[in-house]
Amino acid sequence: MNQSQFELAKPILERLIQHGYEAYFVGGSVRDFIMNRPIHDVDITTNATPDEIEALFEHTIPIGKEHGTINVVWEHENYEVTTFRAEAEYVDHRRPTEVYFVRDLYQDVERRDFTMNAIAMDINYERIDHFDGERDIEQRIIRTVGDAKTRFDEDALRILRGLRFKSQLGFTIDKTTFEAMAQQMADLEYLSIERIMNELTLLVKGRYVAETFPKLEPLHLWRYIPYFKDVDVAAIKLNAPVDIESFLAILSYRTNYQAFKPLKLSNAQVRIIQTLISAIQRAQTIDTKVQLQQFVYDFGIEVALTINELRPILEDNQIDLPSPIIFNSASLQAVWEDLPIQSREDLAIDGKWLMQAFQLKGGPWIKDVLRQAEHAVIQREVNNQTEAIIEWVRTHVKIS
Ligand code: ATP
Ligand code: MG
């Protein structure tokens, strides 16, 4: 079943081979295939040059061409086909921008990070495994290709990749590899925050994050990453996989530190984090049905359900939600569906109606009155009808 993705990509290998080139599947897809995990993006490595690859296929996209990668579109799927390559001098502990093409597969897999990621597989599913990657997969070990210290010294991102693979796969990190990680950790400072965040996002979402997360502190990982170096990450526990936004929401809530700027998050991410922080705060104050309704209305069902899903982690971090008897996914869903209105847009009046009805100019009073009207409608004190709401406002709200 897993095999089907390789079968779909096989014609690409076949065409390369027919034209006298070597071509293999390689990298994460081969690793995941051996482990019987779901495969995403099948990568192909070949001794054909980028120009030669382009000449052989009708539909190619040259993103990454200078690094030797051509995207081949085949049957509506996109495959990265990369020329056997080695990397030039490493400067500043980052992957070099310069690469050069090499003649044989050995040199190509030799520059790859971990033994489990350095296995090539040919068109007949025969593996070419120069660094005993399969043995390491069997023994569930993460081990660098070649000398760990050198490999981390070349590219510090590999340290983070190793840790996120541990979190995703639950493997043990080989002792020498682990010690080299600890030794080279300070080199994380050379990496761009975007690349760091990519790996951290995968790490906190890893199936085995509960056992991985506590190991990061003694490695002093956090010391070398912006934002995290300024907070006490050890103060929080992560007993289950989470989205990076939820992780940051819980961490910043616990440590009361929200200076996310150096993380270069997207505006959307910052918004999600801030919403989650407010929702965490508010959820702890819910005592009554009315408050529960107001919570679900204010934050929407999605955020409410996210908070509910985070319960085990929140509680492990001394953030108590209302009892699961009243706060659970079914009750939240029921409250949501039962709301007379689900957002301000559903309200039968708006600012214009109010200005007209009360013959007043716009101003902060509108927001205030709308908020009270919304509340009254949600509490069914008044029906969601224009006239009824205006009348309710007349008799219940002092407009100033
Ligand atoms: P995933 O399943 O998350 O995609 P992956 O192993 O496929 O994991 P990619 O980032 O897609 O990771 O990289 C594909 C392959 O390229 C890796 O399997 C590895 O062989 C090689 N590689 C990626 N990043 C590095 C690196 N920083 N140093 C050396 N080799 C790398
Ligand atoms: Mg991949």
TrEMBL record:
InterPro entries to which the protein is assigned, alphabetical: Bact_CCA-adding_enz_type3_sf, CCA-adding_enz_C, CCA-adding_enz_firmicutes, NT_sf, PolA_pol_head_dom, PolyA_RNA-bd
Q: Which residues bind ATP?
A: 28, 31, 112, 155, 158, 161, 164
Q: Which reaction does it catalyse?
A: a tRNA with a 3' CCA end + 2 CTP + ATP = a tRNA with a 3' CCACCA end + 3 diphosphate; a tRNA precursor + 2 CTP + ATP = a tRNA with a 3' CCA end + 3 diphosphate
Pfam families from the UniProt entry:
PolyA_pol (PF01743), PolyA_pol_RNAbd (PF12627), tRNA_NucTran2_2 (PF13735)
Provide the residue positions that the database annotates as binding Mg(2+).
41, 43
Mention one GO molecular function. CCA tRNA nucleotidyltransferase activity
Give the protein's biological function.
Catalyzes the addition and repair of the essential 3'-terminal CCA sequence in tRNAs without using a nucleic acid template. Adds these three nucleotides in the order of C, C, and A to the tRNA nucleotide-73, using CTP and ATP as substrates and producing inorganic pyrophosphate. tRNA 3'-terminal CCA addition is required both for tRNA processing and repair. Also involved in tRNA surveillance by mediating tandem CCA addition to generate a CCACCA at the 3' terminus of unstable tRNAs. While stable tRNAs receive only 3'-terminal CCA, unstable tRNAs are marked with CCACCA and rapidly degraded.
**Oligomeric and partner information:** Homodimer.
**What is the protein name for this chain?**
CCA-adding enzyme
- Tell me which species this is from: Staphylococcus delphini
Give the source lineage, highest ranks first. Bacteria, Bacillati, Bacillota, Bacilli, Bacillales
